[in-house]
Design brief:
Helices cover 78% and strands 2% of the residues. With 168 residues, the protein is mostly helical.
Length: 168
């Protein structure tokens, strides 16, 4: 005679098995009815559309020949190599400033800024100091956005093209 615990486990296994089977059938029915997603457009690097072979989208027209592809690569890869090296130098300078210089000099700069704000608050009043602090925060936020966009631009237009052309 099976125990009560065994009966409960058996019933739970049957319920879980039927639920899993129903879910698998739904997935199979849903996947066969859906059309495959359309192909993305071909990538574009430095105003050069990297057309694919075989043609997948209208942007890939006309089909690119092997000779045309080779000539394009021979023309752009030397420039891409130069920009790749310059881009990594700029990137390393960003990392040098962010990881080495800021931790060393950052506390002194923030202490000097706080002392200046304290002097401004004592001489001109707290209202003027609060307004200037708000302006400085807005300028700093603008600078951070500018640096982030500059770094993204360096990566997208200087570092990335070499690998895109070589993998094409």
């Amino acid at each position: 005679m099976p125990s009560l615990f065994g009966k409960v486990l058996g019933t739970a296994a049957q319920v879980a098995g039927s639920a899993a089977q129903a879910a698998a059938q739904q997935v199979m029915v849903g996947s066969s009815a859906q059309a495959p997603p359309p192909s993305p457009p071909p990538p574009k690097v430095w105003c050069v559309t990297l057309r694919r072979k075989p043609v997948l989208t209208p942007q890939d027209e006309p089909e690119i020949g092997a000779c045309e592809k080779l000539c394009t690569k021979l023309l752009v890869i030397p420039f891409a190599l130069v920009t790749y090296l310059i881009g990594w130098i700029i990137s390393l300078l960003f990392y040098l400033v962010a990881c080495c210089c800021c931790p060393v000099f950052g506390p002194y700069i923030f202490t000097a800024l706080a002392a200046t704000r304290l002097e401004t608050a004592q001489s001109l009043g707290t209202q003027v100091a609060a307004e200037r602090t708000k302006e400085d925060a807005q300028k700093a936020a603008g600078m951070v956005v500018c640096l982030a966009r500059f770094y993204w631009s360096v990566y997208w237009n200087m570092i990335r093209p070499l690998s895109m052309f070589c993998e094409w």
